[in-house]
Amino acid sequence: MTDVMTDVMTIALLLLLLAGLLFWLAQALRQPTGIPWVRVVGSDTGGGRTFDHPLFARSIGLTGKPDYVLEKRGVCFPVEVKPGREATSPYESDVMQVAAYCLLLEATTGHSPPYGLLRYARITFRIPYTPAVRDRVLSVLEAMRADLTREPCARSHTNPSRCRSCGFVAICEESLISQ
């Protein structure tokens, strides 16, 4: 009986050590991402907790789904992942996208997130969500709505690869690539 007990204790100790090693490895792999190890409330990436529906703010006519919504100490914040982006500072359009998700979270939860996270291929940016950023998002939305009523504008570049990745390439009369 003692040999069986010793074997069980040895196996239990080995499993405990293995669990500790795996936890340490997971922490070591996650640390460089800049994404905190917190609860995932929602995801639009196809795995885990997916959103039942997009976030929607009727009062400003805005809807969207961040890649992730994380919760830390009762506060939710959005995470947008751009794995193909290589940059040392965030693009303004990406900052506005994260700020718009912060605005959506504020409208749907009643609480303003202090920040959102923007993950590029090798770096994570913390995008503060301040009253000034909120006002800037609202101004951009207003300008975008005004642009919807304007006449179509001319192509603003000479780069065929931009045309190739454009969502309007199939209907654009000025496209630099043939369909």
Q: Give helix and strand order, one letter per element, not per position.
A: HEEEEEHEEHH
- In the sheet with the most strands, the strands line up as 1-4-5-6-7
Summed over residues and divided by their number, the pLDDT gives a mean of 85
Task: Please summarize the sheet with the most strands.
Answer: 5 strands, mixed
Low-confidence stretches: none
Helix content: 25-40%
Structural class: alpha+beta
Individual helix count = 4
Structure description:
This protein has four helices and seven strands, in the order αβββββαββαα. By secondary structure, the chain is α+β, with helices and mostly antiparallel strands. The strands form two sheets. The protein has a five-stranded mixed β-sheet, with helices on one face. α2 packs across α3. The longest helix has 29 residues, at 2-30. The protein starts with a helix and ends in a 15-residue tail after the last helix. The model has no long low-confidence stretch (mean pLDDT 85).
Short description:
The chain is an alpha+beta fold. It is 39% helix and 18% strand.
Topology:
Layout: H1 2-30, E1 39-43, E2 55-57, E3 62-64, E4 68-72, E5 75-81, H2 92-109, E6 115-119, E7 124-128, H3 131-148, H4 160-164
Parallel strand pairs: 5-6
Antiparallel strand pairs: 1-4, 2-3, 4-5, 6-7
Task: Throw out a few tags for this protein.
single chain; 179 residues; alpha+beta; 2 domains; five-stranded mixed sheet; two-stranded antiparallel ribbon; 4 helices; 7 strands
